[in-house]
Amino acid sequence: MAQPGVEFGGVIRHFERALLDELGVGIDWQVTADSGEAIQRDQRYGLDAEMGILRDSTGKFMVFGRVLQAIAAHLPLETAADRRCARDVMHYLLRPHVGAAVFHSRALWQSNPAPNGD
Fold it and tell me: Per-residue pLDDT averaged across 56-85, rounded?
């Protein structure tokens, strides 16, 4: 079960990012694909599953730079809204590669009982 201080959403996002990289479809989390500009915390960016993070965000999946920076650096996200956004970002990026199946990542941890320490 849950370890004290472990934020499973962050662990899952780290796994999902590694999965994208392993599939060969990971994106550059540091700069925009269309302009090469460094990601800024308070800027909104568009996200394209094939191209990556875009400065020109017209009609794309929108995300704040702070969420992208946290995913890039494997840092915890401060708000529930940002954690949901990070989840949605990863699902958006994974969907073309894993199909339309519903993600049940948390069920993996909930179904495994914690070791009893014996």
Answer: 91
**Under DSSP, is residue 38 helix (H, G, I), strand (E, B) or coil?**
strand
Q: Which CATH number describes the domain made up of 8-111?
A: 1.20.1440.120
Task: Give the number of C-alpha atoms closer than 13 A to the C-alpha of residue 88, restricted to the C-beta side.
Answer: 12
Q: Tell me how far apart the terminal alpha carbons of the chain are, to the nearest angstrom.
A: 15
The per-residue pLDDT for 100 is: 74
Tell me the residue ranges of DSSP E strands in the chain: 44-48, 52-54, 61-64
Closest-CA residue to 63 (of 42, 80, 46, 88): 46
Output the six-digit token pair for 86: 């990070």
Closest listed residue to residue 51, CA positions, set 70, 25, 72, 73: 25
Average pLDDT over every residue of 35-56:
93
